[in-house]
Design goal:
With about 100 residues, the protein is α+β, with helices and mostly antiparallel strands. The protein has 2 helices and 6 strands. The protein has a 6-stranded antiparallel beta sheet, with helices on one face.
């Protein structure tokens, strides 16, 4: 994936996460300068951003930092292999008590 394709793909990922957060009703989403901040009801935050040199999407949450690379047709955690949207839904539920539907 070249840099242009990467940016286009990540823009789509961030938009999809933002829409799911807004639809949840309990998670506030703020996308600014390519960084998506999800604010949970308790005021804690989850940050999703791009790491262009590595062609990865990074997630920073209370439970730790997660790196996702494009593999096998999906964004997958570089350690566990878990798919990004499944991982993020689990992280948001654990940290913020809210369900995100990426349907």
């Amino acid at each position: 994936m070249d840099e242009t394709e990467f940016h286009r793909a990540v823009d789509g990922v961030l938009s999809r996460i933002e829409r799911a957060a807004e639809a949840s009703g309990g998670i506030d989403a703020d996308l600014e300068a390519g960084i998506l901040t999800l604010e949970c009801p308790d005021g804690s935050r989850i940050i999703v951003n791009r790491q262009t040199p590595n062609r990865e999407v990074w997630v920073a949450a209370r439970s730790g930092g997660f790196h996702f690379a494009w593999r096998d047709g999906a964004w997958r955690d570089t350690r566990s292999g878990e798919e990004l949207f499944a991982s993020l839904a689990r992280i948001v539920l654990a940290q913020g008590g809210e369900s995100l539907d990426f349907g």
